């Protein structure tokens, strides 16, 4: 840690992991309900549990991104944050808005718009909060000593994510428009600007962990985010096939979304190549493992499994089935959860001065969570494919099909237990690091001052 | 080799070009959607139905136009699939229709709210969604592959009476006749041998009164509809003489 103010990231990371644990609790409620045990139905019906599950996901990821930005931006612009006090206020208000939204879901206060269930009055608070965040980050970068591609890409990603939240706040009576502009948020986030955030954090980590020259890494960053937008913007069309939008979207969405995996493939190759090229052996191997794992699994979950159902001929049958849930889990995990984990794992030793990256705990956290998530994806895949064939292709009744695939949700829940064990280990590891210390000012920077410490 | 500045140019140029293309296509889509979605048919009732749909986050269990959750059925064509009367009865007490199975929240909708929801669904089902939801394309093949059982096939066609509307839209979702229909309640082909006219009539009028705790809902049938149903049931399979 070079700057004391970077410590504020800790608040965001801790909150992030706490919310993740809560997300998993709701995941189990959903899994059990699908298995036929909707025992909480009277208190937490499925739609409440689901809105809570997915919104917690979005909130903890955003929280992780914000924490990462508070860490990376001072480092990249070589100065302290403009105000730690306001950063703490921003954190606290973010938590308050989040808690109100989640409590509201349990009292039928929401909007039935998938992923954007937060009611509009609260949206305004979200906007104010995010403006405060961007102000702090932006002012720090502006007053900084240097502008780096990594820092700027991160800021462009965060600013565009905020801007794209706005179309989701417009009210439409026509369901088709409602859906059309809802995708400006959901799709253009995960297959657009969030990839910028991911790409920037990936290059930051690779620069730090592999020692490859910044110029080389940042050049490829431009190429990758270039491919992201080249394919991802018109790729939005893969959500416009069957919602009442014109037919040309079948062609445009099909072609451009089929190119989207290239960006993820690019990230995977880029990360692998850089780690191979890098001569430097950073002692924090586990952070590197999360970084590479992120690059590879995002390709599998988003690229490969996205491709599996993105062509209109396939999507006609799989649209709105458990096949989508299969892809959603591995994509979110590989691309966005793992990059946040990589950041946490890289940052914690520096913030606390403890090198707890060796030993069995972080290793097993990595292994179990990833094996668990891949197995969960498998369970969703089997259930989803069976659903597509029985319900959509053969025309069996919905509930009859659901009963016949209940057993795969037993598989899902068992896999989720493995996954959760991994997550709990990660969280325990995080707790062991303790809170940030005042005196640890190391410079784990590009010039490679750090000793070849083998802790 | 590619330089960093040309990589930056590729990023900025590509992003600008494709953003502008996307905006142009959006412009065109926005101008086409009112017609494709029959926006002129969106009366106040449809809008109210849409609001009910939104305010209760129905999408948190169901999909509509393929968007939503995967816990409850796709509803784009629900009016076509179930018919209005069925939806009316179902929404008044969802759990009564599928006892012991996956539960839907009991919203206690008023008659007017149910009307609004049905109007909303009727509007949704006429949107031109490029062929979604598709017809099950393997269904004919599966049926051809099964050996047809003439005794079953004959059961319905041999019946003198036409199936009453109520039977077609409501009862069939739980009971089977001639091998077709739901499995929640028993098949009805041979009820005529088991019950008399009075027994059937009393049962339909008040299932809970006859057999407390039964899963069969009180459908609040009018006298006329009830008579029609009883008549039909008594004549199934040639009456009591099979
Ligand atoms: C990290 C990036 C990605 C994430 C987090 C992600 C996540 C998701 C989620 C959560 C959904 C469900 C959305 C909903 O129904 O409301 C979805 C749908 C979809 N995704 Fe992705 N995705 C990613 C990348 C991709 C890519 C690269 C492709 C294509 C190659 C793709 C193809 C699709 C398609 C076709 C659907 C629609 C499924 C349907 O019709 O039900 N996704 N994605
Ligand atoms: C304990 C672990 C988990 C379990 C048992 C679980 C289970 C489920 C279930 C049953 C659904 C609902 C599908 C439906 O609508 O019927 C769901 C939705 C979803 N979950 Fe999870 N989940 C877990 C963890 C996660 C994690 C870690 C992530 C992200 C990395 C995640 C992301 C999602 C997303 C994006 C959706 C919406 C999918 C869609 O609409 O297509 N879940 N989850
Ligand atoms: Fe998408």
TrEMBL record, chain A:
Keyword terms, alphabetized: Electron transport, Heme, Iron, Membrane, Metal-binding, Respiratory chain, Transmembrane, Transmembrane helix, Transport
GO biological process: aerobic respiration; electron transport coupled proton transport; respiratory electron transport chain
Segments crossing the lipid bilayer: 51-72, 84-104, 124-142, 154-172, 184-207, 219-242, 248-274, 286-310, 330-348, 360-389, 409-431
Keyword presence, Transmembrane: yes
Cellular component aspect of the GO annotation: membrane
Topology within the bilayer: Multi-pass membrane protein
Compartments where located: Membrane
Keyword Transmembrane helix: yes
Main subcellular location of this protein, as a coarse class: membrane
Ranges for domain Cytochrome oxidase subunit I profile: 172-455
GO MF assignments: cytochrome-c oxidase activity; heme binding
InterPro entries named among the record's database cross-references: Cyt_c_oxase-like_su1_dom (IPR023616), Cyt_c_oxase-like_su1_sf (IPR036927), Cyt_C_Oxase_1 (IPR000883), Cyt_c_Oxase_su1_BS (IPR023615)
Family according to the record: Belongs to the heme-copper respiratory oxidase family.
Name the record gives this protein: Cbb3-type cytochrome c oxidase subunit I
Species, as recorded: Sulfidibacter corallicola
Phylogenetic placement of the source organism: Bacteria, Pseudomonadati, Acidobacteriota, Holophagae, Acanthopleuribacterales
Automatic annotation (TrEMBL), chain B:
UniProt-listed SUPFAM superfamilies: Cytochrome c
Family matches, as InterPro entries: Cyt_c-like_dom (IPR009056), Cyt_c-like_dom_sf (IPR036909), Cytochrome_c550/c551-like (IPR051811)
Keywords on record: Electron transport, Heme, Iron, Metal-binding, Transport
PROSITE patterns on file: CYTC
Residue intervals of the Cytochrome c domain: 44-125, 153-237
Claim: Membrane is one of the keywords in the record: no
Any one GO MF annotation of this record: electron transfer activity
Pfam families noted in UniProt: Cytochrom_C
Annotated protein name in UniProt: Cytochrome c
């Amino acid at each position: 840690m070079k700057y004391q103010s970077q410590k504020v990231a800790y608040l965001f990371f801790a909150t992030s992991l706490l919310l993740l644990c809560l997300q998993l609790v709701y995941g189990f409620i959903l899994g059990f309900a699908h298995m036929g045990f909707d025992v909480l139905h009277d208190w937490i019906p499925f739609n409440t549990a689901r809105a809570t599950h997915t919104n917690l996901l979005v909130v903890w990821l955003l929280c992780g991104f914000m924490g990462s930005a508070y860490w990376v931006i001072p480092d990249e612009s070589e100065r302290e944050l403009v105000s730690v006090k306001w950063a703490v206020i921003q954190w606290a208000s973010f938590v308050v808005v989040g808690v109100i939204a989640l409590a509201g879901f349990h009292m039928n206060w929401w909007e039935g718009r998938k992923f954007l269930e937060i009611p509009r009055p609260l949206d305004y608070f979200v906007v104010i909060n995010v403006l405060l965040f961007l102000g702090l980050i932006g002012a720090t970068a502006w007053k900084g000593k240097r502008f780096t591609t990594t820092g700027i890409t991160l800021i462009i990603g965060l600013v565009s994510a905020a801007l794209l939240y706005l179309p989701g706040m417009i009210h439409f009576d026509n369901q088709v428009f409602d859906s059309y502009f809802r995708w400006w948020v959901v799709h253009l986030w995960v297959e657009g600007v969030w990839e910028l955030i991911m790409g920037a954090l990936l290059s930051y980590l690779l620069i730090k962990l592999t020692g490859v020259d910044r110029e080389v890494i940042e050049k490829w960053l431009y190429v990758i985010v270039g491919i992201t937008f080249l394919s991802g913007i018109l790729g939005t069309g893969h959500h416009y096939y069957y919602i009442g939008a014109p037919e040309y979207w079948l062609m445009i969405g099909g072609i451009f979304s089929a190119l989207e995996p290239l960006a993820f493939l690019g990230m995977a190759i880029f990360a692998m190549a850089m780690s191979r090229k890098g001569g430097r052996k950073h002692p924090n191997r586990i952070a590197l493992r999360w970084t590479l794992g992120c690059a590879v699994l995002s390709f599998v979950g988003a690229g490969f499994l996205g491709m599996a159902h993105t062509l209109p001929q396939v999507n006609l049958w799989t649209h709105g089935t458990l096949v989508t849930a299969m892809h959603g889990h591995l994509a979110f995990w590989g691309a966005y959860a793992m990059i946040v984990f990589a950041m946490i794992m890289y940052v914690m030793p520096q913030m606390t001065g403890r090198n707890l990256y060796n030993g069995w705990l972080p290793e097993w956290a990595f292994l179990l969570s990833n094996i668990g998530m891949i197995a969960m994806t498998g369970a969703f895949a089997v259930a989803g494919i069976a659903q597509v064939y029985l319900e959509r292709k053969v025309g069996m009744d919905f509930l009859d099909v659901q009963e016949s695939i209940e057993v795969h949700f037993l598989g899902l829940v068992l896999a989720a237990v493995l996954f959760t064990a991994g997550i709990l280990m990660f969280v325990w590891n995080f707790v062991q690091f303790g809170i940030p210390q005042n005196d640890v000012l190391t410079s784990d920077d590009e010039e490679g001052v750090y000793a070849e410490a083998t802790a | 080799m590619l330089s960093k500045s040309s990589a930056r140019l590729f990023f900025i140029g590509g992003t600008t070009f494709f953003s502008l293309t996307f905006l142009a296509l959006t412009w065109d889509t926005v101008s086409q959607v009112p017609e494709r979605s029959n926006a002129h048919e969106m009366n106040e009732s449809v809008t109210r139905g849409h609001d009910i749909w939104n305010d209760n986050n129905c999408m948190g269990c169901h999909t509509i136009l393929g968007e939503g959750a995967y816990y409850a059925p796709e509803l784009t064509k629900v009016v076509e699939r179930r018919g209005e009367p069925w939806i009316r009865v179902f929404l008044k007490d969802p759990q009564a229709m599928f006892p012991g199975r996956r539960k839907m929240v009991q919203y206690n909708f008023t008659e007017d709210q149910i009307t609004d929801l049905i109007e909303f669904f009727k509007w949704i089902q006429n949107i031109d969604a490029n062929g979604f939801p598709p017809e099950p394309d393997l269904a004919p093949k599966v049926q051809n592959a099964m050996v047809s059982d003439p005794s079953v096939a004959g059961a319905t066609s041999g019946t003198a009476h036409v199936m009453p509307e109520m039977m077609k839209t409501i009862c069939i979702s739980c009971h089977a006749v001639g091998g077709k229909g739901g499995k929640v309640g028993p098949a009805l082909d041979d009820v005529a041998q088991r019950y008399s006219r009075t027994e059937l009539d009393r049962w339909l009028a008040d299932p809970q009164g006859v057999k407390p705790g039964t899963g069969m809902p009180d459908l609040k049938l009018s006298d006329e509809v009830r008579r029609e149903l009883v008549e039909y049931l008594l004549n199934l399979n040639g009456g009591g003489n099979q």
